[in-house]
Amino acid sequence: MGKHSPVAIDPDLSELAAAHGVATGYHDGDRRPVTVDEEVVVEVLGLLDVDATTPAARAAALAAAREEAARGLLPGTIGMRASDTRRGAGTLTAEDGTSREVTELAGLEPGWYRLRTAEQEVTVVVSPAALPAAPRSWGWMLQLYALTSAQSWGIGDLGDLREFTEHAAGQGASAILLNPLHAITPLSPVQPSPYTPSSRRFSTPLALRVTDLPEYAAADPATRAEVDALRPEIVGDRIPHDRVWAAKKSAAEALWRAAGRPEPVDPGADLVDFATYCALAERYGGRFSLWPAELRHPGNPAVAEARRALAPRVAFHGWLQQRVADQLAAAREAARDMPLGVIHDLAVGCDPEGADAWALQDVLALDVTVGAPPDAFNQRGQAWGLPPWRPDRLAATGYAAYRDMLRALLTHADGLRIDHVAGLFRLWWVPPGRSPDRGTYVHYDAEAMLAVLTLEAARAGAAVIGEDLGTVEPEVTEALHGRNMLGSTVLWFVRDPETGRLLPPDEWPEEAVATISTHDLPTAAGFLGGEHVRARADLDLLDDVPAEERKAAAERAELVDLLVAEGLVAADASDAEIVPALHALLARSRCRLVLASPYDVVGETRQPNLPGTVDEYPNWRLPLPVSVEELRTDPRVKEVVAALRSGDR
Q: Looking at the whole model, is its pTM more than 0.85?
């Protein structure tokens, strides 16, 4: 692993790594310098097709890098704001096909351009200087799968979202923030984590409300009875993803057949690829690396032949995606009068065997997993099992895959939350076969990544929220704020960096979204009751349980002291009194947007996801203990809404 001393690294290797954006050192969570082991640097360079394994190979690669730098070529993609000036002389072609000669890149309107110079052709993406500022407002954040209702089939669906949104809009809410609704691989076992999707360009049919389909309304009585009989009975307090998917898939197939097996309308190449992947996965399994060799890349001629052979299944999955899109649009329409509307969550990556990995493998590093270096909470580091973008391939292809992914999401969204937004700047790459601590950072062209994001969000009229929690370099948050993108502020973590004390709400950052917790942290009731300590202790995840219990008690007392100082509760307040006071504290903050979670409001003690666990804890399987219908009349909800509205929002 890396070393906390200023260990000397071979200067030629350091220069070569810098030329390709590979870090040879970084600062840990305590701001101490760490030197990356040379062999890790060499391995990561190899993953970028740069051979540094021998002195001769290293010398040749360094000579090539120096020659490239000496030529003074432009990067494959230039990202800039409309107010910027960049080097670049040649013929500049805009999206409408008009061309003109330029001596530099300056005074450009936002948009996509191609610049042809004497030696190369590059992409230029120009964004507005900033997005419109978000209004001061409040809203809800939902784990949609956790909603239950009289109409849903064991998992929260897009009908529940539409109905929840309609009611929230009537309460005066400005926004609904969702967990990722990215597509699954349509096989059992279903991946329950919304942060390990098969595709980030398409949406999960698990969220479909079958009985809202127009094909259901048009079906004959026998077909409707067949569909109704498929509704699963849910026993216990776990969401059975596999049973729900089996039921919804069978119901959707019955309706599709009854409707005459309709083809998707104007599917487009991306949807055809996705539907082809789904059909091939049904035939050959959910790991495309184990498919017949000729089918492992979408560009191979054999894939086109297989697509024709599997045409009915390709048509079904394409049709299914378009029906999910229809219901997403209906939920968004329910938010039409909200100042911000429905905000979707963009996961940091995709399943390395999923649809996006298959379709976009030319711009992904499939042998790599991204994660995080060791820190105080994860002393061995983290590996998330998600392949990263290759920065060199993104630049060479004009960031087309990244742009198209954003466009696909923004088709259904009024805003985006970017999970692990620091990944637009750098990502921790772990080479194959290495433990999470044996990795290093690979840097991205943040100006280009942000330019694409800002331009596409501006064109869609969408807000952007960046999840900048944890060990994040200051320039990340500064870049967000400079573009009127909101950062993230969590009550448990809003502390003075010098003294460590909890900050009062008038000292919280303004350009941020304030929440009590997140899906990876204790709920309000769980924190107040110490459930987060008990859960980890029961799973033997803590080295010193008494110390953690003392820490939790001290943090609870500190929080109550802050509420008392703000005049929101008495010192002997009960947990039932503290929860609405916590929301009133959020409402007092300087943050532009505050969000409440039903988990907190209704007193759920279990957090949705417990990091460091897979099957030991029911991650992503916990439904809310009250239904959508009950939330409308629950006095706790009304009290929290009143508290949120008390802060002049």
A: yes
